[in-house]
Design a protein that fits this description.
about 325 residues, alpha+beta, 60s Ribosomal Protein L30, Chain: A, four-stranded antiparallel sheet, 17 strands, about 30% strand, rod-shaped
Length: about 325
């Protein structure tokens, strides 16, 4: 490779010398000066590299649809023809010399980056490419090294690793970058609003509330709240339901007395659902039936116990 590179140098330099001499003899005015950083042909002067404040460069904000790439070349004494042709997504950025760095913006997402020796003369901008997934608004650092055979190394490094390297590097100012971000504006798609599926209660459900009251009383004891909470949870599961709370007594005492007592008791259960479990009042109704709907005989203690009951009937709200 070194022989090839030296041959390439001779191929480039000899014609340049010939035409340079011919040009001088023909015009008598043209001159070439390649001393130090400066390069001059006649009255055209430029610098290969300049001292810069890389911190100022890094402080510039990167837009969300772009990403900043910093390529840093190792200090070495490699031949000129081992300058590293840096490419981004098959677009030429710079022929990076040892001890220099360059910066360029690219688009977010997958980026194909390559460092390939100038001396190969094949203009293969995708040679030795590597793929990197880059995020918008960020700065990424890449370390470049070329050996004397033209073999390239390009690796991503951290910010902490890059900053000390940049302290001793100069910005390569002589470059004609063909990297144009031209990033498309990210398309923000709003997901379609999907209406939640509200469960529908297909059939009426009856929930027995094991709520016992003291004789002639209508106060719900806290020990029965857990049973009442089952009704509230069921109503939450089926938010389009209504509940009717029914109260029944045995046949002892008069009909009117029993009816009034059962009404006071179901009203008390309804109040617990509203105040303790945040059930909307409009979803509740309470009806006391007294002794009118027994489910067992009132002639025995066991039968009367069965008749003294509170139940919750849950059904789907009728469509309007």
């Amino acid at each position: 490779m070194e022989k090839i590179l030296k041959t390439a140098i001779a191929t480039l330099v000899l014609p340049t010398m010939f035409f340079g001499i011919a040009g001088c003899s023909m015009t008598g005015n043209s001159s070439i000066d390649n001393e130090g950083d400066s390069r001059r042909v006649s009255n055209v002067v430029w610098n290969n590299q300049v001292d810069t404040d890389f911190r100022k460069l890094l402080s510039a904000e990167v837009s969300d649809d772009e990403t900043r790439l910093i390529f840093i070349r190792k200090n070495d004494d490699d031949l000129e023809q081992t300058s590293a042709n840096i490419s981004v997504n098959n677009r030429y950025q710079v022929s990076l010399h040892p001890g220099n760095y360059t910066a360029v913006n690219s688009c977010v997402g997958n980026n194909q980056l390559s460092a390939h020796a100038t001396g190969f003369k094949d203009n293969n901008l995708l040679a030795d490419k590597k793929d990197f997934q880059l995020v918008g608004g960020q700065t990424y650092f890449f370390y470049v090294d070329m050996d004397d055979t033209g073999k390239s190394t390009l690796e991503q490094i951290t910010t902490d690793s890059a900053l000390p390297l940049l302290e001793s590097k100069r910005y390569q100012s002589h470059q004609i970058s063909r990297v144009v971000p031209n990033c498309s504006v990210p398309v923000v798609t709003t997901p379609p609003v999907v209406a939640p599926v509200i469960p529908v209660l297909a059939e009426k459900v009856t929930i027995e509330l094991e709520v016992l009251f003291d004789t002639d009383k209508s106060i719900v004891k806290p020990e029965y709240y857990s049973k009442i909470s089952e009704v509230a949870e069921f109503m939450t599961q089926y938010p389009n339901t209504l509940v009717t709370i029914e109260g029944h007594t045995d046949s002892r005492a008069s009909d009117s007395y029993n009816q009034a007592l059962s009404q006071r008791r179901v009203d008390a259960v309804k109040e617990v659902l509203i105040t303790q479990f945040d059930v909307a009042p409009e979803r509740l109704s309470a009806i006391g039936y007294g002794e009118a709907q027994p489910r067992a005989t009132n002639d025995t203690a066991a039968g009367r116990q069965l008749n003294r009951r509170v139940i919750a009937i849950v059904e789907e709200r009728p469509n309007n």
